[in-house]
Amino acid sequence: MSIHDEVNRRKTFAIISHPDAGKTTLTERLLLFGNLIRSAGTVKAKKSGKFATSDWMEIEKQRGISVTSSVMNFPYDGYQVNILDTPGHEDFSEDTYRTLTAVDSVVMIIDATKGIEAQTKKLFKVCRMRGIPIFTFINKLDREGREPLDLLEEIEQVLDIETYPMNWPAGMGKGFLGVFDRHGKQFVQYHGNEDESVIPYSELDHSEHEELTSNLTYQAASDELSLLDEAGDQFSIDDVLSGKQTPVFFGSALAPFGVETFFDTFISMAPAPAPRKSTEGVIQPDNPDFSGFIFKIQANMNPAHRDRVAFLRVCSGKFERGLNVKLARTNKMIKLAQSQQFVASSRDSIEEAYAGDIIGIYDPNVYQIGDTLVEGKEHFEYDELPQFPPEQFKKVIATNVMKSKQFKKGIDQLVQEGAIQLYKDYRAESYILGAVGELQYEVFQYRMKNEYNVEVMFEPIGERIPRWLKSDQVDKSLFDERNMLVRDRENNYVVLFKNDFSLRWFKDKNPKIELIDLFEVN
Ligand code: G4P
């Protein structure tokens, strides 16, 4: 198969959701389709630590959640599917955001009984801002939930995106009859078990379906559907692919109901790997020379080997084991001898990969997040990965001062992985860690102890709003504990504002000082 054909059969996506919306249950269904697992219903086992698709680290097992993103891949219907797992816990990390730079689309799961929940709103918004195509699965239709129209309106308002229901539910919970499949022009009947039966629209007026069609719930849904057909948004694949419209599927991951139709439609519509911007212009995914970028680095996934693995998204060409590549940042040649693809809990060695694939490469401590690897004579770097400003800040202190060497080494390495951000108080040389969520501190503390043998304590500084300063506009006298002046890892000055009010007040008083919001810039 040509590189072009290989690229076009790749579908690389992430599933994002609020905890408990049903991501594990849905993922399991997809793994079943891909024959990666043999039976469903292992959700409980996962939560008790037995089913460990991505639970590499002890802390994940302890909390029953997936802390770091992992990758699952399988062939399906002629396609090569790559699912990037993202932590769904409420205090997910910057890692979660960064994973989105390595996918071509996302599946957003929403619990029909709850709608869009606070903590994950931001994650959804990041997808929206970055123009990533979003496919929505509204889950748990087998339970009494919110009105479908309500849910759509909420998605439209919160994400500022058009919705197009691919199917329309008739009832929910105990009275759930099934869905009108607008795409396949058929009614899919729910029978409360795994069996679904379909009635083409053209046969709905047959007498044997009278029991269904005379049901008031069915009729109400049918009326709503007519209204949607007349007054709702038109389906537009271009708008879907540019992230302006989200196709919405109603179903139940647990029943399961509507999952296979959802997946088949999603797979047929989701975009293949796209060209990517670099310092030398746009690089086509079927360009014969291999290239890719590192979006994540993880240390010690296997405690038996003290190894680091860099996760690389292939962007062009063909990866083969033993390939000689150049690390664009340093211009050094590297032989990619050890590489793995990640399937469920095992790490299989891989022979070849194409744009869209994610591979794990052994990192002898040379890679940084955002690094570009290119083959042969090529020389370019992919656009920098966006930084996601942390919201919480804590001073970190080693409880045993004798261990300052290991302390610094641990901090350096963990910060380099991008798991947490480091700032320094510009006067006292104390270390301040910034994170998107609380969980990152727990992971940091755990890993400092287990991997570097250093116990650390935190002194919370609280939630802060970071704004970067231009180097010629730093007037130290303007800052104090409220609006703390610190430096980031590259020694740029950053102000950690106490809250929105202090930020506004400062702006009013010092209109000439430019405050840079990295988040908005990206
Ligand atoms: P998560 O990974 O997004 O956190 O969610 P997960 O799949 O673990 O699902 C969270 C809970 O919701 C589980 O129940 C799961 O069985 C349930 N669930 C998922 N999909 C559906 C659905 O379509 N319908 C219904 N009714 N429930 C669904 P739990 O009681 O928390 O866990 P367990 O004891 O069943 O394992």
Low-pLDDT parts are 46-57, 63-69, 343-347
Spatially, the strands of the biggest sheet line up as 18-17-23-14-15-22-19-20
CA distance, first residue to last residue: 37 Å
Percent of residues in helices: 25-40%
| Rounded Rg | 25 Å
pLDDT averaged residue by residue: 85
The molecules bound to the chains, other than polymers, are:
guanosine-5',3'-tetraphosphate
Number of strands: 31
Overall structural class, as computed from helix and strand content, comes to alpha+beta
Coarse shape: globular
Number of helices: 15
Proportion of residues in β-strands: 25-35%
Could you describe the largest sheet, including whether it forms a barrel? 8 strands, antiparallel
Main location: cytoplasm
Binding site for GTP: 17-24, 85-89, 139-142
Family: Belongs to the TRAFAC class translation factor GTPase superfamily. Classic translation factor GTPase family. PrfC subfamily.
Organism: Virgibacillus byunsanensis
Describe the structure.
- InterPro entries: EF-G-like_DII, EFG_III/V, G_TR_CS, P-loop_NTPase, PrfC, RF3_C, RF3_dom_3_sf, RF3_GTP-bd.
- Its main location: cytoplasm.
- Belongs to the TRAFAC class translation factor GTPase superfamily. Classic translation factor GTPase family. PrfC subfamily.
- The protein has 522 residues and is α+β, with helices and mostly antiparallel strands.
- Strand 14 (291-299) and strand 15 (308-316) form a beta hairpin.
- The longest helix is centred in the middle third of the chain and has 16 residues, at 216-231.
- It is globular.
- The two termini are 37 Å apart.
- The structure holds guanosine-5',3'-tetraphosphate.
- Guanosine-5',3'-tetraphosphate binds at residues 17, 19-25, 43-44, 47, 88, 139-140, 142-143, 252-254.
